[in-house]
Amino acid sequence: MNDLEKQLLMAGLPGTGKTTFLALLWLAIVGGRTPGVKLADYQDDRTYLNGIGARLQHCDPTLHTELGEDRALKLSLLVGETDDPAVLDIPDLSGETWREAATDRHWPSRVEALATGNKGLLLFMHGREFDAGATIGQVNELTDILSQGSDEGSEATGHATGDTGGHGQLPEGPPSDANGKSGHIPPTQVALVDALQLICEQRGLRPARVSIVISAWDLVGEGVTPREFVAKNLPLLVQYLEANEDWLEVQIFGLSAQGGDFEDADSRENLAKVDAVERAIVQDRGGGDVGVHEIALWALGRS
Amino acid sequence: MSTTPGLVCEQDGCPFADNGRCLEGLPNGEGCPHLRSLAADEDAAAAPPGNGEPQPGGEIADAGVDTSELDPTVELGGEDSVTLAAGDAIAARFGATVVLIAGEHNAGKTTLLAELYAQFLKGPFASWSYAGSECLIALDRRYQGARGVGPGPPEIEHTADEEMRLIDLRLLSASGRRVSLLLSDIKGEFVRQVIDGAPLREELPLAVRADRTAVLIDGEKIASMYTRQEAVTRARVLIGALTDPGGVPDGRPLAVILAKKDKVDSEGLDWFTAEADQLRAFAEERGARGTTVNTAARPDNAPHRPEGLDDFLAWVVAPAPEAETLVLTTALLGRERSFWRLHERPYE
């Protein structure tokens, strides 16, 4: 990697919007709608970016994995008021890579190299589909309520939600396999802290910069900022960030790269009428609208 | 156009493998029903999740880089408690307060640790915040294993390792004080052997190094008038063995901890309180700084709120009674177990 190359590591479980983010970032950059960031030239291989960008523009609800494509955003850019040259490189690692890291406790050596050599981290979670990690006490309380409060004799299942308004469900208890691997998927906030510890604390450079991206932000609901969302739903993460703020600089973003639901026909039709970059929703921690490139710039230390 | 290694077209005459052009005219062969993955042939493993499936919230699925191709893996660790040697490394980085939690099988050692961890899942606990742990997944695995599905008492994953291991937990207080804890994660069998007369330095060498020692007494044993006397007697023997010359150094804190307090009725609790006072006094006679703590880490009865965990934590994080000026180093002691000294405490 040369001095101009700025590599960001993008981490998140499957379905947390990493590829959609890349598609939106590409469309915003190539469309000239990223103040302070512009293409230096048009010499980079854009096959993959053109492909995922087009699908975002088409409001394509199902993207089949394009095996064999060059899966990365790698662009020669001019950054800042002084047009500093930089090559932005964001490999698009499979969400399964991160799932295996969380559950099986290993990752490919290529990811190890990325984890130790990146300039910043983009950490993704889904704004609605996440495991809040209810405690046993909360489960037992719920069990009591269900067993006492139902004339129909509702059966307590042990599944419970956290304080998230009903989005978190308990995974089944994970048996260890023959290799002693637990196989269990930790609750989302534990997985996020684990990722930060693995990438930033145990391997990465210090100080570290991280953009935490809450995807599908349109599904979270109005009246809550990304910061409030994290404070309410991810208390362990909040503690970890505050306890390590002397070296770990974090910005939180809410992102709806699609701007709405591509699965619903009416919604999709309405969304298709709007420019892909325009219909996207990107908010900073306080709920202010920002450009999608700010997510990358923050992690690069340029914001 | 990029090439597409790893893909092959099954349609006769298609030049896809040669130049990447799809006979059906589809860019990159996207959506072509004749394309298949060579990797999929070699390994019948399913394609990465997200392939072709609508993702939650309708976001485009992660396309992802295929990292499976002959890329050696790097073990990340963290799914289990750490060895004493690994504890050395943690302590060298952060400093450490080593806490020996000594209790017989099923006394509640693992539940105590797991529930202490679980308090931080809900937010700061007793004015302390989670600051990091190399054993995060190990803690969550033990706790989440007990969160399993279905009514009835949760099953805890008891410590199974044959060697002494440690749980690393770093905390930050509301006042800004940092502590790095190394909490023992050992089988009750070691403790039983010490009670039955095995040399402390062989069975529990951690006792010599421990900054604090907690002697756990099973509340279920105290709840029964037929087993309570034996439980207290065995605790007394354990305290005696721990505080023999060459064991827990003089002046170190030692807590008599009642676990599963929720199992004990008021009569039993009164009986135990008197007995615990005598155990504490005995520990002090033997040179330790004694105290007693009653806990119900995971009470069965509503409202299922842990009791005494805050007291336990306060005892664990209390400033050391005397200034420590040592850093961990490893040396051999009996059966090749670690012996530690502190000479630096950057986390204090």
Question: How are the SSEs placed, and which strands pair?
Answer:
The complex is a heterodimer of chains A (303) and B (348).
Chain A: E1 5-11, H1 18-30, E2 37-39, H2 47-57, E3 72-79, E4 84-91, H3 95-103, E5 106-108, H4 109-117, E6 120-126, H5 136-149, H6 188-201, E7 208-215, H7 226-233, H8 235-243, E8 248-256, H9 265-272, H10 276-279, E9 281-283, H11 293-300
Parallel strand pairs in A: 1-4, 1-6, 6-7, 7-8
Antiparallel strand pairs in A: 2-3, 3-4, 8-9
Helix pairs in contact in A: 1-2, 6-8
Chain B: E1 7-9, H1 16-19, E2 35-37, H2 38-42, E3 73-75, E4 82-83, H3 84-94, E5 97-102, H4 109-119, E6 128-132, H5 136-145, E7 165-173, E8 178-185, H6 188-195, H7 200-203, H8 206-209, E9 212-218, H9 219-223, H10 228-242, E10 253-259, H11 266-285, E11 289-294, H12 309-317, E12 331-333, E13 337-339
Parallel strand pairs in B: 5-8, 5-9, 9-10, 10-11
Antiparallel strand pairs in B: 1-2, 4-7, 6-7, 7-8, 12-13
Helix pairs in contact in B: 4-5, 10-11
Characterization of the model:
The complex is a heterodimer of chains A (303) and B (348). By secondary structure, chain A is an alpha/beta fold. The model of chain A is unreliable at 64-70 and 151-180 (pLDDT under 50). An 8-stranded mixed sheet of chain A has the order 2-3-4-1-6-7-8-9, sandwiched between helices. Chain A has helices spanning 18-30, 47-57, 95-103, 109-117, 136-149, 188-201, 226-233, 235-243, 265-272, 276-279, 293-300, and strands at 5-11, 37-39, 72-79, 84-91, 106-108, 120-126, 208-215, 248-256, 281-283. By secondary structure, chain B is α/β, with parallel strands linked by helices. Chain B folds into 2 domains: 7-69, no CATH class; 82-341, 3-Layer(aba) Sandwich (Rossmann fold), CATH 3.40.50.300. Chain B has 12 helices and 13 strands. Chain B has helices at 16-19, 38-42, 84-94, 109-119, 136-145, 188-195, 200-203, 206-209, 219-223, 228-242, 266-285, 309-317; strands at 7-9, 35-37, 73-75, 82-83, 97-102, 128-132, 165-173, 178-185, 212-218, 253-259, 289-294, 331-333, 337-339. In chain B, the strands form 3 sheets. In chain B, strands 4, 5, 6, 7, 8, 9, 10 and 11 form an 8-stranded mixed sheet that branches. A two-stranded antiparallel ribbon of chain B has the order 1-2. In chain B, strand 12 and strand 13 form a beta hairpin. In chain B, helix 4 packs across helix 5 (136-145) and helix 10 (228-242) packs parallel to helix 11. The longest helix of chain B is centred in the last third of the chain and has 20 residues, at 266-285. Chain B is globular and about 90 Å long. The model of chain B is unreliable at 1-5, 39-58, 148-153 and 323-346 (pLDDT under 50). At the A-B interface, helix 1, helix 2, helix 3, strand 5 and helix 4 of A face strand 3, strand 6 and helix 5 of B.
